[in-house]
Design goal:
Two copies of one chain form a homodimer. Chain A is 15% helix and 23% strand. Chain A has 307 residues and is of the alpha+beta class. The first copy, chain A, has an eight-stranded antiparallel barrel. In chain A, strands 1-13-14 form a three-stranded antiparallel sheet, with no helix packed on it. A three-stranded antiparallel sheet of chain A has the order 6-7-8, with no helix packed on it. The radius of gyration of chain A is 20 Å and the shape is globular. At the A-B interface, loops of A face loops of B.
Chain lengths: 307, 307
């Protein structure tokens, strides 16, 4: 497994170049322009079996609301991910609801009654699985934005399409906007996977290594992030009629008419250029490139594959 | 002017103590519990003249929607803040609207027609005012979370109730969730203050030193963050009927029935304990304290003052 090494060029270097506005516009494409220009072979298709498709009840105007989640690949969180596959196959979430919307934090869904029977053979996963030990024979290097790692880990970077952090005990996925995690009670409970949440605010990285991350929303997060905030403690809805019904959650290979999604390989040349541009905005709007970027400010590009 | 020095105690130190769950609960209050226990004299009242009160049109259920903004104090952004005071006094925003809601980014408001006459005597502010030069005779020290500064600046910390970053050229306020900034066109335009936005997603810190920050939302941000996302480029609403009307924006001292707000002094003992707890969650839910925190994950506590 190889980890992309992100070289963040020095902002000072570019500031020293005497470019006119027109030259700068040509010379320095925006992050979106870099992604748009990436070669077809730099994109990686996501297997339908790694998708969860959530159909919410239609909105007040009768419009369908679909949220698509990509499940996290091995070696991360596979105990919980396996449970989630079983829960989807058992149609556990059909008829459950969105129960909590806390501003600048999370949207959470599951069985509000807490009485619905779980499918058989779910596994109990240990908290040690929040972190994956270093792989032997590693040849990867993590990103260090101009020698400025983030506040939560010794190092961070991307591998296989996912944002990761690293410490002495190993590697772990990080709580960026849109990441999906497993709700749980007080530790040492780590949750079954029946109760899930997604991040709708500033990255709550203090949850890293404290809750299992199992995926990320890749389409339709606006159907969750724009829901009315709950007025109860922790943003839970206080009245049953406030809860948004979930019609169904299925794996992408269990249903038809799911488009193919693909992500920009984090090992690609275009991703490296994109990450550098996110850290050093030199497109014409910008006056002062930052010279670095928080890993959660470098969202991995995901799109529908052209038919 | 004094900058709070935040000492982040080592997480390892605490992990080594053999505490039962009950002892831990007593020993390590949560950030919210620390704030709730702060002394009355650690809170600083915000002058009504430093508030902007935005009244949106009532929602679909007829419920009033009020958003309260605290304007940024000297020495930051005072050219734009002065313009904003004049715009409020001239009732410029009455009858304007929320025009843009971009997921995980910003909500923006102002005159959608771009034809409304601005009040007289607005000043044009130079981009150099995005940064305030170091003050001479300084005796402040910035926070360094366990030697892990953030990815966007050499140092960061809090002063006078606001999150700040520091580089060779001086100090600047940072783009955290809820911060309010001045929309502008292509540089070198810096905007008048008539077009404003607030952050509703992961901190877009690449905008620091590229756009003027003039305040923060201290109450009612959910009325903005839960609005439907715009479907046009950059999240602009495509149809006029999607725009949310702004009935009025007034300074807090121009109207009655505005409660008094207060923030927890960032120079107080309780704020230091709160920030440390945000960086090292040891309350019972947590298994692994992070050992550091992004400055935007330490929101300055603001509340209504008890009558």
């Amino acid at each position: 497994m190889k980890i992309a090494h992100l070289m963040f060029a020095s902002a000072a270097l570019f500031a020293a170049l005497p470019l006119s506005a027109e030259e700068a516009a040509t010379e320095y494409p925006s992050p979106l322009e870099i992604v748009a220009a990436a070669k077809a072979e730099e994109w990686v298709a996501i297997a339908p079996s790694d998708l969860l498709v959530m159909e919410l009840a239609a909105d007040a105007k009768g419009k369908a609301r679909r949220v698509v989640i990509q499940l996290m690949p091995a070696p991360f969180s596979q105990g919980w991910v396996g449970n989630i596959r079983k829960l989807a196959a058992a149609k556990f979430w059909d008829g459950t609801s969105i129960n909590r919307v806390q501003d600048n934090y999370v949207v959470q869904w599951g069985d509000a009654t807490e009485k619905k029977a779980l499918p058989e053979r779910l596994v109990i996963v240990d908290a040690k699985d929040y972190v994956t030990p270093d792989w032997p024979g590693k040849d990867w290097i993590f990103a260090q934005a101009d020698g400025r790692p983030d506040a939560y880990a010794a190092a961070h970077g991307f591998n296989n399409g996912w944002p990761l952090a690293q410490g002495r005990e190993g590697l772990w996925p990080v709580h960026c906007y849109g990441m999906v995690g497993v709700g749980r009670g007080m530790s040492p409970d780590t949750g079954s996977g029946a109760e899930l949440y997604t991040v709708i605010g500033h990255a709550p990285r203090h949850l890293d290594r404290n809750i299992a991350l199992v995926g990320r929303v890749i389409e339709g997060i606006e159907h969750l992030s724009s829901l009315p905030r709950g007025t109860g403690p922790l943003g839970f809805y206080e009245k049953e009629e406030e809860r948004v019904p979930i019609n169904s959650i299925r794996r992408g290979d269990e249903i038809t008419n799911v488009p193919v999604f693909e992500y920009l390989s984090t090992e690609s040349t275009s991703f490296a250029a994109y990450a550098d541009a996110r850290a050093n905005r030199r497109d014409p709007f910008f006056i002062k490139p930052a010279g670095g970027a928080d890993i959660c400010n470098i969202p991995v590009p995901v799109r529908r594959k052209a038919p």
